[in-house]
Amino acid sequence: MSPIQDFEQHSRHLFEADLPIQTRLQMAMEVRDSLEITHTGEYLNFLKCYFRAFSGVLYHITKPQFSDNPEHKLRNIVIEILNRLPHSEVLRPFVQELLKVAMHVLTTDNEENGLICIRIIFDLLRNFRPSLENEVQPFWTLFVKFTRILGLL
To answer: Which superkingdom (predicted)?
Structure first.
């Protein structure tokens, strides 16, 4: 994939409502396999184009799955992509929304995707703590709830 024109077109296509799940899955795998772009000057363009599409896939286009099927694989790949984003200053404008997406998936998805989201949340809190001060409490409340359910607290 090359500059922003391809990002824009590819991300719009990924977000199309009538796109078959297998095609969407293949497109997400293409993005995952070319994540080295996030270590270049194109990282901001990548985020501007894909972040909305990834959020849309997780919030609106797919539903949490509890079996291994193409929809689960798509959600898992998108979450994996979000987990692999470099935590540089380029990510800062997207941090609040990334935290919300991770919290949403953590509270609705299966264990596999939830664990990846815990990593995303901890990495965000470690790297962007001052800008996330107001968002920390819901995570800790959820964390305490989970530990109580598991009998760890």
So the answer is: Eukaryota
Distance from C-alpha of 21 to C-alpha of 71, rounded to nearest angstrom: 7
Render pLDDT for 119-133 as a digit per residue (tens, 0 to 9): 999 999 899 987 777
Which residue shows structure tokens 């929304």? 97
Distance CA(2)–CA(141), nearest Å, equals: 42
Q: Note the pLDDT of residue 44.
A: 95
